[in-house]
Write a structure and sequence with these properties.
alpha+beta, 3-stranded antiparallel sheet, 3 strands
């Protein structure tokens, strides 16, 4: 979670995209997760715990926490 938030802040400051394709994120930064389904499951679990993570199909984004 910390790495994802850090990456979001850096990209937002630089004007880079802050939405990530889940599979591309896994391949580029979390390649230790060899099984795509396991990584996707982890992302969905993180989204349940952290309100600032939103998952829309194949896209993950960090947002302002929902109330």
């Amino acid at each position: 979670m910390l790495r994802l938030c850090s990456r979001h802040r850096i990209n937002a400051r630089n004007g880079s995209p802050t939405d990530y394709e889940i599979e591309k994120l896994r391949q580029d930064h979390y390649s230790a997760y060899e099984e795509a389904q396991n990584f996707r499951r982890l992302i969905y679990e993180l989204a349940k715990i952290h309100r600032e993570i939103q998952v829309d199909e194949n896209i993950i984004r960090v947002t302002t926490p929902r109330k």
